[in-house]
Design goal:
mainly alpha; 0% strand; globular
């Protein structure tokens, strides 16, 4: 158990390091790390545990982004509200899904995410976009639609979904990447807490591991942000390197879990 706690702390530190270094995507490694490194036997427990850890980490990061004025609150809250319903239904379906098949699908999702991260555009958006009575007819429907869809995926796979929320917010509103990253943390927190609560009601959260994972994540995040400032001119290359790592891990997860589909 002591070794498992150490591995959980180290895994949390790795996720925090990636989040601090490149600003997103690191949480997708949480479930594979809990299953294949920490040794959590049940994929469902790994999903429930990672959901609460990622949600609390996102909440901590949200405070910093809010202070810096990087959160478009009205857009973020509408997106998150729609996504909470999606996350609830997605996580309910995920709990009843075969664990090994769920891991195989998770691995396939990692491959898709890796491709999106590798080829993502850094184009600027509209810094002045706002959700008001005048803009609601144009911004409201896409915010609700993208929010519900991303929330369902987040709940089903037990991931923070920041890598999906960010492009969803940009597609729905045309806001800048910086504001999308800051605003996405509202949804990541909301989706994670919804998923975690649903799993916790079924006893599928290891609270001891949550504590160690978050502790490691705080330390890793501090190191990642410090390193990120020094390597700011190489962020695109770092993102592509991380995307490659995600793809390799995704392939490993698929290979390990694929027999569940043919057995």
């Amino acid at each position: 158990m002591i070794m498992q706690d150490i591995l959980a702390t180290g895994s949390g530190a790795l996720v925090g390091l990636v989040l601090g270094l490149i600003g997103g995507g690191g949480s997708i490694l949480a479930v594979p790390l809990l299953v294949y490194v920490v040794g959590v036997r049940s994929p469902h427990v790994a999903i429930g545990t990672s959901a609460i850890a990622v949600a609390l980490s996102a909440l901590i990061n949200l405070v910093g982004h809010a202070r810096a004025g990087n959160v478009k609150w009205r857009c973020a809250l509408v997106f998150a509200a729609a996504g909470i319903a999606g996350a609830y239904f997605g996580s309910t379906f995920g709990k009843s899904f075969d664990g090994q098949k769920l891991l195989a699908l998770f691995g396939l999702l990692m491959l898709v995410v890796a491709a999106l991260m590798f080829f993502k555009s850094g184009a600027d958006g509209d810094i002045h976009v706002r959700l008001t009575r005048a803009t609601a007819p144009a911004l409201g429907p896409p915010l609700l639609a993208y929010g519900a869809a991303v929330g369902a995926l987040s709940g089903f796979f037990g991931i923070g979904g920041g890598f999906l929320v960010v492009p969803g917010l940009i597609a729905a509103t045309g806001m800048t990447m910086l504001h999308a990253i800051g605003s996405s943390l509202v949804s990541v927190t909301a989706f994670g807490l919804t998923t975690a609560a649903n799993y916790a009601l079924s006893g599928l959260v290891d609270w001891r591991l949550v504590t160690y994972f978050i502790a490691g994540g705080v330390v890793g995040g501090l190191l990642g942000r410090a390193a990120g400032r020094r390597l700011s001119t190489h962020k695109q290359r770092l993102s592509q390197l991380f995307a490659t790592i995600v793809a390799v891990v995704g392939l490993y997860v698929v290979v390990q879990a694929l027999p569940a589909f043919v057995s």
